[in-house]
Amino acid sequence: MDAASIHLVEDVLLVAIQEDITDTDILDLQDVLSERVSAEGARGVVIDISTLEIVDTFVGRVIAQLANIANLLDAETFVVGMRPAVAMTLVELGMHLPETRTALSLTHAMQRLRAAAGG
């Protein structure tokens, strides 16, 4: 799975999605992320989509699913780096991500995760 990388920092899994990610890669990422959240005991997940210039309904749905999987495994989840064009496309496609938190950047997400942890 070269189209995404996952790194553990401060009990938070940072997931960087590359622009050339395929549908198969995304499905693999769901499996790998759920395993890593559980195995590492991650208290947070930050999904960075800043390299994605466009999204379709499949990618939008999977981003929501990634966040929901992490949330169900008790890891507070943020999607960061969303470009305005991506946000507009998600709205135009009727994609609502009510369970998905967003932050402007990795820094903002980490600040919010630290605050939630009490430090």
Lateral strand order in the biggest sheet: 1-2-3-4-5
- Taken from the alpha-carbon principal axes, the silhouette is globular
- The CA-CA distance between the termini, in Å, is 34 Å
Strand content: 15-25%
In short, what is this structure?
With 119 residues, this protein is an alpha/beta fold. The protein has helices spanning 23-40, 57-72, 84-92, 106-116; strands spanning 4-9, 12-17, 44-48, 76-80, 101-103. It has a five-stranded mixed β-sheet with strand order 1-2-3-4-5.
Give an account of the 3D structure.
The protein has 119 residues and is α/β, with parallel strands linked by helices. It has one domain: Transcription Regulator spoIIAA, CATH 3.30.750. It has 4 helices and 5 strands; from the N terminus they run ββαβαβαβα. The protein has a 5-stranded mixed sheet with strand order 1-2-3-4-5. α1 runs parallel beside α2. The longest helix has 18 residues. The chain is globular, with a radius of gyration of 13 Å. The model has no long low-confidence stretch (mean pLDDT 88). Pfam families: STAS. It comes from Leisingera caerulea (Phaeobacter caeruleus). InterPro entries: Bact_StressResp_Reg, STAS_dom, STAS_dom_sf. This is STAS domain-containing protein.
